[in-house]
Amino acid sequence: MQAFVVLISKGGAPLGILSTHFRLPHRPSDQQLRMLDLYVRQAGDFIERCSTEEVLRQNEEQLRTFSQTLDAEVCARTRELEDKNANLLEKSERVRELSDELLHAQDEERRNIARELHDSAGQTLIVLGMTLDQTVREGQRIAPNIVKRLEEVQAVVKQLHRDIRTTSYLLHPPLLDESGLASALMWYVKGLAEPSSTAITLDIAENFERLPRNLELAIFRVIQECLTNIHRHSGSETAIIQITREDAAVCLRISDHGKGITPEHLDEIRAGRSGFGIRGMQERLRYFGGIVIIESNNCGTCVTANVPVPKEVASPLPKPVQAAA
User: What mean pLDDT comes out for the span 65-80?
Assistant: First the structure.
C-alpha cells in the first residue's frame, strides 16, 4: 500500500512529494497520520532550508568573486593613478628645475649685460665726455660761437652716461657682489627717491651679515619687484621695507598704504592665474625653501616672506638701524 503527500513550502509553493509504503494493506492510525504530517512539515522545512542555503551559497560565491574582481580593479586603478601621479610630480619637479635654471640664466645674463654696459658703453662715453671737455676749452679760444652747442652736447652725453650707469646697476647692482645686500638696497632706495614720488623707508641692519650670493640676489629681486608694483599700481605715497634675521631665517616685509588689490584679483594671483611678477618672486624664494604671503585690502598691500638661511652662514642677529629715503 502507498500514500502520497505533497510537500508545501511556508509560502505555499509545492516542493515535492513524500511517498510512504506498507507491505500489506493498511489503514494508518491517527497517530501515524500525525507523525506523517510532522515528517511532511519537517521535510518541507529541510528542503526549503537547503534551497535557501544553496541560494545563499551561490550569492556568497558571486559576492566573493565580485569582491576579488573589484579589489583587483581597485589595485590596478590605484597603481595606474600612482604611476600617473609620480609622472606628474616628476614633470612638475622638472618644470621647477627648468624655471630655476631660467631665473639663474636671466640673472647671469643681466650680470653680463650690466658689465658690458659699464665696461664698454660706459667707458666709451667717458672718453667722449673727456674729448668734449677738451673741445669746449679749445673752442672758447678759437670758435666761441659754437661752445654753447658743444656744452649742450656735453650735457646730453653726461645724462646718457648716468642713464647707462643706472641701467647697468639696475640690471645687476655691483654693490650686491662687493658689499652685500644692505649696501645694495640702500643705494637702490636712494636712487629711487629722486625720480619717484613714493617715500621709501628701509629698515635693515647696517652691518647685515652676508648671505650666499644667489640668496642675496633673490631677496634683492623680490624687493625690486615689490617696489615696482607699488610705483605702478598702488598709488601709495609711502613704502616700508623691513628685513630682519630671526634664528636661521631672513624675514622680509614690504608694505604700502595704497589702494590695494581687489579680492577677485588677489584670488587669481593666489591661484596662479595672474601676477607674473609675483609668481617670479615665489619661484625665486621657493628655490631656497622660502614662502611668500600676500595680504591686501583697501588700506594697502603687505608682502611678507620667510627664507631659511643655510646653517653655514647663520650668525648672531645684528643691531638694526633705519635708513629713510
Answer: 88
